[in-house]
Amino acid sequence: MSSLLYxxxxxxxSNLIFWGEISLFQSLDSLxxxxxxxxxxxxxxxxxxxxxxxxxxxxxxxxxxxxxxxADIQYDGKQIIISPHIPRNYTIHGxxxxxxxxxxxxxxxxxxxxxRLGTTTNGxxxxxxxxxxxxxQLEFSHINYQRKKTEVSLYRxxxxxxxxxxxxxxxxxxxxxxxTDDANLIENIPSINRIVISGPDGQIxxxxxxxxxxxxxxxxxxxxxxxxxxxxxxxxGGGVDQNLTLLDEATIYNPNHFxxxxxxxxxxxxxxxxxxxxxxxxxYGGRTSSVIEVRQKEGNMNETRASGGIGILSARAxxxxxxxxxxxxxxxxxxQSLLNLSIDDFASTSVRRNRIRFQDLNVKLNFKYSQSxxxxxxxxxxxDRNQVGLxxxxxxxxxxLNFRWNYLFSPKLFSNISAFVSEYNYKIxxxxxxxxxxxxxxxxxxxxxxxxxxxxxxxxxxSFGFSTIYHRLLPGxxxxxxxxxxxxxxxxxxxQGLESAAHFGHEMTTDGFSFHYxxxxxxxxxxxxxxxxxxxxxxxSADSTITDTIQFKRLDIIEKxxxxxxxxxxxxxxxxxxxxxxxxxxxxxYLHLISNTISPxxxxxxxxSSEYIPPTTTNQYTLGLYKNLKDNTWELSSEVYYKDIxxxxxxxxxxxxxxxxxxxxxxxxSQARAYGLELYAKKKTGKLKGWISYTLSKAESRxxxxxxxxxxxxxxxxxxxxxxxxxxxxxDRLSAxxxxxxxxxxxxxxxxxxxxxxxxxxxxFQFRNNARLPDYHRLDVSFKWDGKKVKKSxxxxxxxxxxxxxxxNVYARQNAYSYFYRESPxxxxxAQVVKYSIFGTIIPAITYNFRF
Length: 852
Description:
It holds the Pfam family CarbopepD_reg_2. This is Outer membrane receptor proteins, mostly Fe transport. The chain has 5 helices and 57 strands. With 852 residues, it is mostly beta strands. The chain folds into 3 domains: 83 residues, Phage tail protein beta-alpha-beta fold (3-Layer(bab) Sandwich); 77 residues, Immunoglobulin-like (Sandwich), CATH 2.60.40; 645 residues, Beta Barrel (Maltoporin, Chain A), CATH 2.40.170. The radius of gyration is 32 Å and the shape is elongated. The N terminus is likely disordered.
């Protein structure tokens, strides 16, 4: 444009010789008469009537044609080219927030009304949608928030933060919901559960009045525990160590308190929980069964609030508020066990255990530096303390510190960069002389990961990134408690490894069909220093078969494993109320929990893949049919799945795992498989709400090196698993809820015969898992009484409170947890089978909850 301006400076800056209403062609011809070099085609332009203001310059007139999108103006240095306006694409992006707290709303739908275009807010509340320029109406919706509509004039890239009001805010309740009315139909990912805190009618009755997001998940298809007092989840036949548990994207290794009966996730501090049990996006890896993604609240940016509750088991409190209103916030949450309770207080047998205490502390800071940049710092500290008799104390707990940075490189390119440290520690002190000792173990992760999302248009999203984790494992040490102890010092060799991965994914939506595919490339480099034992070929590994010892120096690569993990998910929306989904996911796991008990204990250790412990790999195939009825009031689904699990760890009979330097000699590698049918029906609206869940499944494995290579059921196999949960409002302030669960008893190994040795009766076990415990069933109910909402004056109360009365195990069912054997006190020499039940009575509890 510079040469043109140089030649025609006076003409472009002179006033127009015409004004008022005039046709486009007349105006352009008039410009030619005053020497402006105009070039245009009457065949391509539309000769529309335009309005020209008196006194504007030629340059201002040309800018008006461009700004009003009547024509596109191009200055090529010699002439001015007037061409038909070509609509451009622009991007509108921003964050959806809770108007009361400033919290980002995850998984909400952003719909362009009048079109089939839309998107969802991602795991950080961010959305981006690219459209042709024009006037639009956007609607933001989420099942727990009021719908919000806004008018948008999209003629340039725009940033738009939207705030919406919660429908109902009930403190410390849990409701498992889809995030939109038909999310189960449009969601690309099959087999996904979301647990939303502070949802209406969500007071799920549970033990001692506690609200727990993980125990809530056990009421869903395909997710189960061994039984009461059993830590860890088994998801679709996988082991408890095959679940990737994330708290604000940092790994948590032991997410259990109080013998596994509640989780470490304080419901006061939790914003959103997502469980992926079928298709796992390429950005996740390191475990082969599921991803349990827990996100903490971000803290209220608008006002200082406090909430909490007190019950029989624990007391909890949360304080949140702005550091700089609208720009930064803080959150501090704490939970403490009360009354020093024990399972023994409710057990139905003479088997006695000791008391346990636990604490949680959650902290989070949130800094919004600019529209494009937000920083987060979150931390968690949790402890359990178990006093065993008078002479032994066990302590264990998790530590986590995570720094996260969200940055918008452009309206279409979103990034999340995080760096975290996560530790799990265990310590036992026994003061009983002369063998008094102190034992310790620890696992620590130091990680950095980057995820980027690029949204070129509403129908496509590309994601890519990398991650690396430095694992440092201290499997165990034992040393004398004091100078008087005769205990020998034992310290197992530390392990360290670098687990890295790169991933790419593409999510595409077309008319009635969408798919999500990607590839994850992962690997583990096990690093020195370390010792590797060589064993004699052709015979089982044992201490007696060691032939050589190889020493590796610091940072030497002891073992290297690399795996390709392709994933794909397809969604075919058959009509407005029905969709068909299919997926394939391959995953690899390089870290293994070593435990030969049916329920992992805090003392169990973790082990990196090595020459003798290859990575566990899983191929999972899922097919599901989803149907909504009565305007999305009812949500139905039917899914079948098949999992092929390679290098699944099993244990030799009588395996010795305690302070074993050659632990690989006690392990066996099996081929495992799991398959099943999951049925689910949920009623989402109306006075009565709830769901019914049923799973028919099988989990089994075989060890090829055994002569008998039959598949044997796993110890967590449950053929039938049924649960149902319902809630109903009885009045304006009173509501009730009930759960009922039924499942097949877990497998157990019973002796096939017995023999006497040195006067002792010894049972003989021939086959593993050759019998089952009796079927398990239980009914729980709860009643919720809301405090008054208005004062006597008629003014609405600012503070909320409510009471919950819970009755666990209503009909006092003594469900068998296990059998143990002892000599009959009535008939010496005869073995007596004793059933051990965790709970053998009705357990009532009451909790009080508040917010102000």
